[in-house]
Amino acid sequence: MSDDASGRIASLLLSLACGIGQAGPDGVEIRVANEDLAAGANVTPFTVSRVLSTWQREGILKKGRGSLLLQKPELLMDSK
């Protein structure tokens, strides 16, 4: 638990991508809600939303309703 909030969210997303993610031509789709990510990373849903919005602006992922599309999962490693 020594990682900061974005590091914990990044670790959780990478784990989910390997476990339940569906690989496609544009990236890895993960069907997960912000509240689930918040619970798994021990942060607030607001923090998850803020971090995901930052990563979306950086082109790492795309947010959808109830799902995320990881386009550049390798860049999440820099967030850890």
Question: Can you offer a commentary on this structure?
Answer:
There is one protein chain. The protein has a single domain, classed as Winged helix-like DNA-binding domain superfamily/Winged helix DNA-binding domain (Arc Repressor Mutant, subunit A). Helix content is 45%, strand content 19%. It contains 3 helices and 4 strands, in the order αββααββ. It has helices at 5-19, 34-41, 45-57, and strands at residues 22-24, 27-30, 61-64, 67-70. A hairpin with a 2-residue loop joins strand 1 and strand 2 (27-30). The chain is globular, with a radius of gyration of 11 Å. The mean pLDDT is 92.
Quick summary:
45% of the residues lie in helices and 19% in strands. With 80 residues, it is α+β, with helices and mostly antiparallel strands.
Unreliably modeled segments: none
The separation of the N and C termini measures 11 Å
Strand order of the largest sheet: 1-2-4-3
Category by helix and strand content: alpha+beta
Count the DSSP helices.
3
- Give me the CATH fold name: Arc Repressor Mutant, subunit A
Averaged pLDDT: 92
Provide the helix percentage.
40-55%
CATH class: Mainly Alpha
How would you describe the oligomerization state of the chains in this entry? single chain
Give the tally of β-strands: 4
Q: What overall form do the CA principal axes indicate?
A: globular
Taken in chain order, the helices and strands follow as HEEHHEE
The CATH homology group name? Winged helix-like DNA-binding domain superfamily/Winged helix DNA-binding domain
Q: Which CATH architecture? A: Orthogonal Bundle
Provide the gyration radius in Å: 11 Å
How many structural domains can be distinguished in the coordinates? Answer: 1
Biggest sheet features: 4 strands, antiparallel
Strand content: 15-25%
